[in-house]
Design goal:
The protein has 247 residues and is an alpha/beta fold. The chain has a single domain, classed as Glycogen Phosphorylase B (Rossmann fold). The protein has 9 helices and 8 strands. The protein has an 8-stranded mixed β-sheet with strand order 3-4-2-1-5-6-7-8, sandwiched between helices. β1, α1 and β2 form a beta-alpha-beta unit.
Length: 247
Amino acid sequence: MKILQVAPAYYPAISIGGPIFVMLELQKQLTAEGHFIDTLTTHLGLTDAEKQQLPLDSIIDCSEQNRRIYKRFYGHPHYTFSPSTLIWLMRHVNEYDVVLIHGIWNFPILAAAIACRIRNVPYFIFPHGTLSVDAVSLKKATTKAVLLALFVRRIVKGALRVVFTTKMEERKVLEYIGGRVNAFFLPNMVDSKEFQHLPTGGSMPFFFRIWWTLRSFSIYPRVEVSELVLVLRQTLRCCSITDVSLR
């Protein structure tokens, strides 16, 4: 399959947080399965040196199966308003079999969902723990309530699958948005090798919890990503999408 990932930030912008490592590992596992993956993102979180190495508005070939496109955003980094992202999506999203949308509250997520709906391209949404009363109440709760009513609820319910990490996350999301969604469960994935050298300090129980969490993550990727690929294929067939290339 030819897959597009969309997110407001992506590797090497590791200061943004854990979802970037999850996306990176998902990309590695899917390319290992033989699929072609492009990632559309913004320059959020990149250092000045990284911006020089990763030119904006250009297709960067990472491998024969993987490319990245970094777009410029304007205004507040929590929203990442990027008109060029929407323009690019409207021009190119129908070149992909499916779109994997990572996040909820940023402009690229809204742009990707709108483009997918207009161009009739199926999409999956990964909320990454940001779509619940607990998460929303931490910052800009009123703004997010407005966005939920205007766009987010419709976007989430329109996804062919909403990908949760746990049943608890699913329960919290459904309580917040109301109604039902087509759920799929995929544990967070990271490459534990990236975390072999942790900062010094802290208590032994704390570092044991980190080690156990990373160890637990390392158990899942191959089997679960294979299941995700199977769901992608079955979903596309069930929706009677024609001319889908299952490479």
